[in-house]
Every structure is written in C-alpha cells, then in structure tokens.
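Much of what follows relies on a compact textual record of a protein's fold. A record is reproduced here so that you can trace the correspondence yourselves:
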Amino acid sequence: MARYDFRTPRLYVDAALGEGANLALDPGQANYLGNVLRLGSGDAVLVFNGRDGEWRGRLVAVGKRKLALELTGRTRAQDSTPGTAPDLHYLFAPLKHARLDYMVQKAVEMGASRLQPVLTRHTQVARVNLERMQANAVEAAEQCGILTLPTIAPALDLSAVLAARDPGRLLVFCDEDAEVKDPVAALTAAAAGPLAVLVGPEGGFAEDERAALLAQPNTVRLSLGPRILRADTAAVAALALIGAVLGDWRCAAKITR
C-alpha cells in the first residue's frame, strides 16, 4: 500500500462523493475543524464514506460559523479486490463505557469488519449503546486511514450467535483453560479464510457455554498466554495474533503511524 497522508485531517461523511461535489458539514464537524483545529477557507481535508473511496477537498466558509467542503480529487479508490481487506468478525462480551469504547476503537484499527456483542452467563453489561459503538468506530476509522466502516451488529445471546453461525468461517475461541498454551502454534495449524474471534466476559464462560463452543465445527480454542487478561486487553492480544498468523499482517507493505 502506498504511503498515506496522515497530516491532513480526515472525516467520515454519509454523503455521495464525486469530483466537484460540495458537502455541507454538520455543526460538530464544522466546530472540530474550525475551532479545534483552527482551519479555515482553503485548507485541505480528506473525506471518505465507505463506498466511494477517499477524496481531498478544500474548506469553504458559508456564513460566519458554517463550513462546507468542495471536493477537488480522489486520493484513493474504494478497494474492492477480494482478499485485500480482512474478513474478520469480532465477537465479544460487552464491557462498561470507557473500556468498551477503547475495545471498539482497537478492534477497528486491527481490521475487524463486523463487531458483534455477545451476551453470556457472566456478561456484566446487558444493554449496549449501538450509536456510541458506531461513533467510536467512525473515530477509529478516521484516525487509522481505513476506507470501510465495520458493521455494528445488535447484541445477541451466545446460543443465538452459534445457531446462526456459518461453519465455513473459522471461529477462534479465546479460553484461558485451553490445553494448548502456545497460541501461535494453535493458529498455525488452522486454515486461513473468513475468521471470527470470540472473547468472553472477565468472569469466563460457563461450563455449558464452553461445551457448546467446543462442539462447534471449524473452531480453534486459544489460550492467550500465562496471565489472565482483562477483556479489552484480550481483544488487542487476540486480534494481533490473528493478524500476524492468519490475517493481513502477513503482507509486506503496511501503513504505520
């Protein structure tokens, strides 16, 4: 992948993008660009919408407190080549507030294409604010340079997730009680392809839940090392391992910041 411009501010917009288009920025975006970043007319901004690639635009003042963006050219096409973006579902027991925000942001940075909250016996949070998850996903996508936002799925019970599961998608089930303690060895033996990673609650899986997971086809039971990790730490560890062994970290040229 070509070297990426991290110096120019970047925004997600829910509007069609094309040569010469003029976009009205919402008050939050205008305040961020004008008052936080101190940008004004003529300054450059990058925008993406998850469909039309990434575009460069210049800010145009519209009245005293409003800003619009005039697109001047596309910087990156929306990559539709199969295999270039990870097909990675991240399944997780919800956490409280700031820790969930952190986990969502890191999962997006790590390449998750779908975020699926999963309710288990020992899950501490029963209700999930999907709008807040979406906002955190947008912020992470703006910062890390990706062109596509992940799907934010509504919370489901573990039994419903397993009942609807596609057995062709490898399920990596993170479990501190796994017999194979070397996570790299456990993943190396698996075939690459569509992936799902499941990280449970900090109270662990109930025995019947663990039995149901172990009965699933095309599943790898994975230990994350000798220490018990917090769930948000486990998310980063598991997704990093997946990226390195089975995911797109194996490609030579990557964006680093």
About this structure: Confidence is low (pLDDT under 50) at residues 80-84, 252-257.
